[in-house]
Amino acid sequence: MTDLDISTEFIEENKANLCQFMPNSRRGPYSKYDKEARRNEVYKFHFEYGYSARKIAELMKINRNTVNADLQYWYSKAVKRFNIFNPEQAIILSLQRLEIQRTRLREQLDKVTDNTEQIQLERLIYDVDCKILQTHHKLSDSSERIHRLATQWLNEHMKKHRKDERYLSYYDAIKVSDKAHQRINKIIDEDRRSVMLR
Questions:
Q1: Which one of 134, 139, 141, 169 has the minimum C-beta count within 10 Å?
Q2: Residue 67 class from Cβ within 10 Å (0-12 exposed, 13-18 middle, 19+ buried)?
Q3: From CA 178, how far away is CA 33, in angstroms rounded?
Q4: Which residues are CB-neighbours of 107 under 8 A, at least 6 positions away?
Q5: What is the spatial distance between Cα 99 and Cα 94, in angstroms, rounded to a whole number?
Q6: Which pLDDT does position 23 carry in this prediction?
Q7: Cα-Cα-Cα-Cα dihedral of 116, 120, 123, 125, to 10°?
Q8: In terms of C-beta density within 10 A (0-12 exposed, 13-18 middle, 19 or more buried), how is residue 111 classed?
Q9: Considering only CA atoms, which of 49, 52, 47 is closest in space to residue 137?
Q10: Phi, psi torsion values for 58, nearest 5 degrees
């Protein structure tokens, strides 16, 4: 796939805002329409073509953090659409299927004598290994999301019942005052924004 595979409509509509897509140029906020168009392109490349965030950022000439944020948006939409709070079971099933596929490819590789076929099978095994690694990463992200939601719900409960303490992390259950909690979250949000603008 080449850069020309990005829809012509998307390129034409965003020529005026090209600086937003260049990795080393000044970045401004996307308009609502530009953001939606960009997210749709990211969706197409990731879910229809199976490209990684790195590859999508390279093809679209946008920051990888922007692509990651768009992918997080699409995965959260999928979770809501399918009413999945904890998708670990589906992820584990996907891992199992990939492992079975890898085993079959490996067994086939032992039987071939043709170098071209051998290289093709090795490439397929590599692709499966990459998908397994990506699936492990998604499993880790899912666990983190659940803990983040648990912390958020706990803090909402504390606020609703007029308790002064807030929790920074479900993992550590660190209690701080409401004001300290707001200050810490502000620092974390500012840090995340500065990283995305780099």
A1: 169
A2: buried
A3: 37
A4: none
A5: 9
A6: 43
A7: -120
A8: exposed
A9: 52
A10: -65, -45
Q: What is the pTM for the complete model shown?
A: 0.38
Instruction: With CA atoms as reference, report the closest residue to 70 among 31, 98, 44.
Output: 44
Q: Is the pLDDT of residue 167 over 70?
A: yes
Q: How far apart are CA 58 and CA 183, in angstroms?
A: 36
- Two tokens at 135? 């699936």
Q: Which amino acid is at 127?
A: D
The rounded distance, in Å, linking the Cα atoms of 167 and 181 is 8
Tokens of 53: 């965030």
94-99 mean pLDDT: 81
Which structure tokens are listed for 151?
């912390």
How confident is the model at residue 11, as a pLDDT? 56
The full DSSP string for 91-129 is HHHHHHHHHHHHHHHHHHHHH---HHHHHHHHHHHHHHH
